[in-house]
Amino acid sequence: MTVTVRPVTEAVGAEISGVDLRRSSDTDFAAIKRAWTEHSMILLRDQQLGEDDLLAFSRRFGELDPPPNQERGRISPPGYPDIYVVSNVLDEKGDPIGALGAGEAVWHTDMSYLDTPPDASMLYSLEIPESGGDTWFCGMQAACAALPAELHRRIEGRRIKHDGTYNSGGYLRKGVTPTDDPMAAPGAWHPAILRHPGNGRATLYLGRRRNSHVEGYSKHESDALLEELWAHATQARFVYQHVWKLGDLVMWDNRSTMHRRDPFDGAARRIMHRTQIKGTRKPVAFMA
Ligand code: SIN
User: Closest Cα to residue 286, out of 254, 251, 256?
Assistant: First the structure.
């Protein structure tokens, strides 16, 4: 089989075909990694991955990060602590088997409340609803390159607070004290514009909106600036909408994308398995 790579939008994402991830060669893997570095998000359809296959493919990119602490802690399939379940399905006791329910998950990048966030995440579809639950990706390198000069000037050389209180579903993380004060919230400060270690490009790094703050500004000024930045970054021209099919494997770069998920019918079933590749270095500011 020949690996082919086809961009899905100009700003973000590429579909890769001609690979069975259960038995990809080193040459295939090199092509996959190049496409991920170049396009920030990759899609491989028609995969048939058991938990061990998903872990083996994920580990080719590096060490794995444990799942994020979500509303019910860290939920994994039995025996697979490095896999994180995203699902609205309930077990026989009526408890969710995964995180995020059936509601909207707002724009965010994964686990950027850590000083060294995961470089990448993968999501593999096991059960999907007939409609809804689409996942959207935003290309933060294209968004950065298109920043109006004035907006760029106001964040250049500054850091942004990334909140660790709430997840993208709006749920409080287990064991965390609720707060709406960015300064009191747990989390990490990262450069507003970082240098991508894989391709050297400037990347706008916003994390998540709630409890965010741009350093050096009052709360009022920071909120106004963040509204402008978020409105700019999430324009349709930077976004790809992924409509899931069974057996899709999607992998994204957490430094150069954000993602969000549409809500879906809570009576339908959606089960996804996710892994995350540990970051190897703290985000570094882009110097022009
Ligand atoms: C996530 O944010 O990792 C979940 C996205 C999704 O459920 O599509």
Answer: 256
